[in-house]
Design brief:
alpha/beta; six-stranded mixed sheet; two-stranded antiparallel ribbon; 8 strands; 20% strand
Length: 202
């Protein structure tokens, strides 16, 4: 987090992997697994408060029926206690759940090893993924997403290693919580996406 603050970021959305292959490592019941998963976010939020970096909650989940990764923006930690096996939902089921909870469902890096999924059951796509070690084919994602005028477009650094710091992100107005994050992304008018070199995508 300190590296992001030093790079000029004012906020970060933590979208740790909420997947069966991660959670199965925790030898516990469903509630305890969710609590263990949330530990990283809660520690990051506290650390962010100490250095002046806002930290918001998000989710990346590999939906097993779709064999694809999806981002959930606007969710709160309580959402996972309601859906502790979120990853078992189909895309359509996840989309319907998200709509009923005011959450945005977006496909993550849609051209990395998986291909785009049904646009009818998502609110948008990650059109720029800053991970330097995987072929995300961002230009293809951006080209496809712009065919759907209602789509929410996002950019993220996909941070896994130190070299990923600052490799993507979004310019947003000041927001206070996850609900407001989803609202601003949905409206889109005050959102600009940034890529690895710091330039604007749109």
């Amino acid at each position: 987090l300190l590296l992001y603050r030093q790079a000029g970021y004012h906020a970060k959305v933590i979208t740790d992997h909420f997947t069966n292959y991660v959670l199965e490592q925790y030898k516990a019941n469903e509630k305890q697994r969710v609590e263990r998963y949330l530990k990283g976010y809660l520690e990051a939020k506290e650390a962010g408060e100490n250095i002046g970096l806002k930290v918001f909650f998000g989710i990346e989940s590999h939906l097993i029926p779709e064999r694809a990764d999806f981002l959930f923006y606007g969710a709160t930690p309580d959402f996972l206690f309601e859906y502790p096996k979120l990853y078992e939902l189909s895309q359509k089921e996840a989309f319907e759940v998200c709509c009923s909870h005011g959450i945005l469902l977006l496909q993550a890096h849609p051209f990395r090893h998986q291909g785009p999924r049904n646009p009818e059951y998502m609110h948008g796509m990650e059109v720029y993924n800053g991970n330097l070690r995987n072929p995300s084919h961002n230009a293809l994602a951006a080209q496809l997403a712009r065919q759907y005028p209602h789509f929410v477009l996002t950019s993220g650094s996909d941070f896994h290693m130190y070299e990923d710091v600052g490799c993507g992100g979004m310019f947003l107005p000041d927001i206070s919580d996850e609900t407001e994050l989803a609202k601003v992304l949905r409206e889109g008018s005050n959102v600009s996406l940034i890529r690895f070199d710091g330039g604007a995508l749109c």
